[in-house]
Design a protein that fits this description.
The protein is of the alpha/beta class and about 290 residues long. The protein contains 11 helices and 12 strands. The chain has a 7-stranded parallel sheet, sandwiched between helices. It has a 3-stranded mixed sheet with strand order 1-4-3, with no helix packed on it. A two-stranded antiparallel sheet has the order 10-11. Helix 7 links the parallel strand 8 and strand 9. Helix 1 runs parallel beside helix 3 and helix 3 runs parallel beside helix 4. The radius of gyration is 19 Å and the shape is globular.
Amino acid sequence: MHTVKAKGILSAKGGFNLYRGCEHGCIYCDSRSLCYQMQHDFEDIEVKENAIELMEQTLRRRKKRCMLSTGAMSDPYMPLEKTLGYMQKVLVLIERYGFGINILTKSSLVLRDLELLKKIHKKTKCVVQMTLTTYDEKLCKILEPNVATTKERLEVLKILHDHHIPTIAWLCPFLPFINDTEENIMGLLNGCINAGVHGILCFGIGLTLREGNREYFYQQLDKHFPSLRQKYHQTYGNAYIINSPTDQSLMHLLKTECRKNNILFGTTEIFQYLNTFEDKYSPAQISFDEL
């Protein structure tokens, strides 16, 4: 871990990353790609030491409230968050200034902040998004070695639903010849249905590989699935988008099951929902302390 002083904290669209790099070790992680110009080892987490100060200054100045969102460059609830508590401090500010929040994570640590999430959702809107890739627990620990297992993540989604926090499941990525099966999709779907997710986001049955993350991914294939590197080379070469042979049939299955169970589906619909700010306080409910 190392620290830097950041010049800014929020993007124009309200996205933010408190950290750069990640401890989770997922073998497919796109954030390892060289195009992001990370000037340090991926596991040497960069911490924006002035993030809380910048966030308060920014939210105080903003005249129009909106939905904020954690970025995809790193998980805001990776293990070091237990010690640093940056995300928790940011949530306090988001609640204080009346903004909404979308959180994307794979960690059960999000439940540490459940009461804060409930306070935010009472005022505006709080949505927790959880990435799920593999229903098989043993395979999960290979693909995503340092995070909560799929079973644990589904339990988190169920707890959030029981506390009236809406949730979105990101079903991605699916690695060809590894977890791109109907059995896996149905296992994840049934888990999501039981957890009461509001929506499911899936960009297709496959993954993306580019310089930086491709090399790491192939190293991990050699370690855990030694027969697959050659098959990937023969099938996909150096393609960026790696679509599974089962893409069309499994995407049809996903759409059909989501419609059947009244689960929101589709990238346009999901992102419209995530970005729509809701103000649940009428003028009569706002106290002078909140102005």
